[in-house]
Write a structure and sequence with these properties.
heterodimer; A: 238 residues; mainly alpha; MetI-like fold; globular; B: alpha/beta; 9-stranded mixed sheet; two-stranded antiparallel sheet
């Protein structure tokens, strides 16, 4: 059965789709920033075995990693009002997606932190760096570098996951598309346009991750090696 | 529930596929198309919509009962044959009739022009009213009272189309995946009002003990939709018999009596229209 594609009714609603895309970008950016802060904090608490807090952190990670995002959204949006806290759909979406990312990224951060050999930390301390300096330069940055690819992969999943928040009527791209679909009956065309828009957004975000990565890990190798590399370069170029 | 607009497409597709697929299998004698056919097989098979309390209930033995089943019982009694009730839902009802699984549908179907192309739709036997449901204290006497309010609706439903089309300043339509979530949004206080079938909303309010908080705002009508029975296109005699049956059930007060028994009020919308 031949299906005749007709994108005109969908493209006529471009302003709504663009508003939706902007809302998705805002929602994702905010949730990613908050989620990463939560994730790093939780991972450091567990890495440094802070008493009591580490148990709370473990409970949080297990709870959020073992329940669906949709259920978390429903509980926040429909459930919290009965406890006297009323969040709007967008606020509920940011809180749920941030907490969800926090739990997942905490495990990724922890994997990176665990990959740092104890001797490296001892070396940092032996060089006279303070505990905080050691944490920052000798533990967190190298750990981040190890897990950076899997972390950015998780961030892409989080961005795409914001589409689920349309279920609680949070304004974002999928909701805008669902509205257009229900009014134009052009389902296939609508979702093809949505797919293209999501690809554009995720590629933009990934470009940002690459730039941030370049800036974060700009000091690639210790100076001594650079000198050695320069000498070798000169030798080979001659 | 009640997504008539989206149902139209699916129904038409399913209908077309089934017509093609079953045309060969269906011989005139296999499917009762006339009263005489039904009398000959001593049984009428009626598809009844389920899953929308208070219009239907499932008893402890899992059997379905309710307003529509009572009407089906009357049909069988008046023809003078046994009754077989086949529970159907919005998605399956058209296919059930088209494939010959049921002789007719008593399934809350509104006689849309699309459906009338596929089936013969009878005169209406009942109706439901779509109304706003809001907190008891909220003033809602005219549509303009909704200015600046948030109203939840099921995505793509008839009430979505209606409320979105009012063009009231500052009225925000908040869309959810189904009727239950749209209602829950009101109960959780996430919206100021919701648009729903009045009888269904009243049932939810009563069953969940929310009568002090929420009420159906009857002064602002959204629309009233009438239900027709449906038979296959070639069942002209059965179609006309059902029209007579409905006329007689209405003037004898039987329809109101049954509606009163299950929903607690007479059929809304006054005198039933005839086509």
């Amino acid at each position: 059965m031949a299906y005749e594609m007709n994108f005109a009714p969908v493209l006529a609603r471009a302003p709504e789709l663009i508003d939706g895309a902007i809302a998705t970008i805002e929602l994702s950016a905010k949730s990613i920033c908050i989620g990463l802060i939560i994730g790093l904090g939780v991972a450091l608490i567990r890495f440094n075995r802070v008493p009591i807090l580490k148990n709370i952190a473990a409970f949080y990670v297990e709870t959020f990693r073992n329940t669906p995002l949709l259920v978390q959204l429903f509980l926040l949006f429909f459930g919290l009002p009965f406890l006297g806290v009323r969040l709007t759909a967008t606020e509920s979406a940011i809180v749920a997606v941030s907490l969800n990312l926090g739990a997942y990224s905490a495990e990724i951060f922890r994997a990176g932190l665990d990959a740092i050999p104890k001797t490296q930390i001892e070396a940092g301390l032996a060089l006279g760096l303070s505990r905080l300096q050691t944490m920052r330069y000798v533990v967190i940055l190298p750990a981040l570098k190890v897990i950076y690819p899997s972390l950015t992969g998780q961030l892409t999943l989080t961005l795409l996951g914001t589409s689920i928040t349309s279920a609680i009527s949070a304004t974002e791209l999928t909701l805008a598309g669902a509205k257009i679909e229900s009014q134009t009956f052009r389902s296939l065309e609508t979702y093809i346009v949505l797919a293209v828009m999501y690809i554009a957004i995720t590629f933009t975000f990934r470009a940002v991750y690459t730039l941030v990565g370049k800036w974060l890990f700009r000091r690639k190798v210790p100076k001594a090696s650079i000198v050695a590399a320069t000498i070798m370069d000169e030798e080979t170029s001659q | 529930m009640f997504k008539f607009s989206s149902f139209g497409k699916v129904g038409a597709l399913a209908g077309a596929a089934l017509i093609a697929g079953t045309a060969l299998m269906m011989s005139a004698s296999a499917n009762a198309q006339t009263i005489a056919d039904i009398e000959a097989k001593q049984k009428v098979t009626i598809g009844v919509l389920t899953g929308i309390p208070p219009y239907d209930v499932t008893d402890s033995s899992g059997k379905t009962d309710g307003f529509l089943v009572d009407i089906a019982r009357d049909i069988a009694a008046d023809i003078g044959v046994d009754l077989e009730v086949v529970p159907v839902n919005n998605a399956s009802r058209a296919a059930s009739l088209e494939s010959g699984r049921v002789d007719l549908l008593v399934a809350h179907m509104t006689a849309t022009p699309e459906r009338a192309k596929i089936f013969r739709m009878t005169n209406p036997y009942g109706a439901y009213e779509m109304r706003f449901i809001a907190p008891v204290g909220m003033e809602l006497k005219k549509l303009d009272d909704l200015a600046g309010k948030r109203v939840s609706v099921p995505k793509g439903s008839t009430q979505d189309a209606a409320v979105s089309g009012y063009g009231i300043d500052g009225l925000e339509v908040v869309r959810f995946d189904d009727d239950a979530l749209a209602m829950q949004a009101l109960i959780s206080g996430q919206v100021d009002a919701t648009a729903a079938v009045a009888a269904v909303a009243n049932d939810v309010i009563a069953k969940r003990g929310l009568a002090e908080k929420f009420e159906v705002k009857s002064e602002v009508p959204i629309f009233t939709l009438y239900w027709s029975m449906a038979v296959r296109k070639d069942a002209q005699e059965l179609h006309q018999w059902l029209n007579n049956f409905i006329y007689y059930e209405e003037i004898t007060g039987r329809l109101d009596e049954l509606h009163n028994k299950w929903i607690g009020s007479p059929i809304p919308g006054g005198k039933l229209p005839t086509f």
